[in-house]
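Whiteboard transcription, Tuesday session. T.W. wrote the structure tokens on the left side:
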């Protein structure tokens, strides 16, 4: 979708009120973190870490050292504030960089490698799983957040959003792709319609509020045009055809 304004600014405004910037609720994210059972002193990497909420929850639950990478100047700033406020700056390192170019100090060294809601960083879901698997130690965890088609998307929906029909696979195929890469599935955590409505609705509210508060910003017209278009696509089709899940795998 052509946003007609700076992409990072657009996402910074529309995700101003999100703690986690993906459709899974904070409560379900916390539940998932509780399942990880990470070892003391473990190493964690989260590519496209957003506001580092996931990493903060992980570091609060386990005595680990973590690295988060995000390419957005707005988001990495929010992540730094989050980590600082939570008193976790000594255990969470944040990098403003392209996740696709990052290499850990040693291959197969991580206890958990994750990429939640940004599989384009490694081309697609399979590429993401392959890249994270290379960084993870045998027995370590690979976690990805990825959309899936619940039903075949309507052509009108694809036209309005500009989505490719191959944007994602089905829920079952997302798991099979992980198994093809050599991973063992441990768990999936799926967003329900309430979770999705919150994720989408917070964006509409934040955009409308920004427009009211910044009437002289020349980007306001593009901001409202894009958020309203995306809202219509979600309400008419996306809500019924697009799913979202976290996929937790273990590297044998
Ligand atoms: C849907 S958000 C998910 C954020 C976070 N993982 C979460 O679930 O809260 C996608 C994130 O990917 C980041 N991003 C996009 N392209 C990136 C890249 N090439 N490298 C690192 N981060 C990137 C965006 O800035 C944004 O924070």
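and on the right, the sequence the group agreed on:
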């Amino acid at each position: 979708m052509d946003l007609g304004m700076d992409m990072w600014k657009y996402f910074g405004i529309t995700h101003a009120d999100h703690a986690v910037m993906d459709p899974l609720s904070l409560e379900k994210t916390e539940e998932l973190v509780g399942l990880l059972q990470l070892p003391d002193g473990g190493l964690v990497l989260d590519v496209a870490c957003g506001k580092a909420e996931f990493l903060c929850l992980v570091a609060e639950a386990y005595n680990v050292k973590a690295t988060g990478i995000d390419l957005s100047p707005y988001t990495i700033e929010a992540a730094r504030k989050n980590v600082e406020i939570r008193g976790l700056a000594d255990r969470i390192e944040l990098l403003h960089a392209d996740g696709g170019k990052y290499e850990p100090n040693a291959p197969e060294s991580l206890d958990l490698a994750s990429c939640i809601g940004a599989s384009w960083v490694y081309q697609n879901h399979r590429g993401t799983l392959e890249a994270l698997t290379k960084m993870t130690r045998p027995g370590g965890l690979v976690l990805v957040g990825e959309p899936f088609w619940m039903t075949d998307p309507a052509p009108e929906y694809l036209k309005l959003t500009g989505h490719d029909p191959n944007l994602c696979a089905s829920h079952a195929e997302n798991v099979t792709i992980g198994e093809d890469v050599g991973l063992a599935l441990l768990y999936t955590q799926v967003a329900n319609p309430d979770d999705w409505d919150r994720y989408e609705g917070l964006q509409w509210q934040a955009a409308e509020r920004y427009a009211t508060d910044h009437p002289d910003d020349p980007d306001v017209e593009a901001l409202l045009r894009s958020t309203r278009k995306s809202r219509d696509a979600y309400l008419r089709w996306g809500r019924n055809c697009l799913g979202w899940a976290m996929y937790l795998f273990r590297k044998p």
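Someone added at the bottom: The first strand starts at residue 43 and ends at 47.
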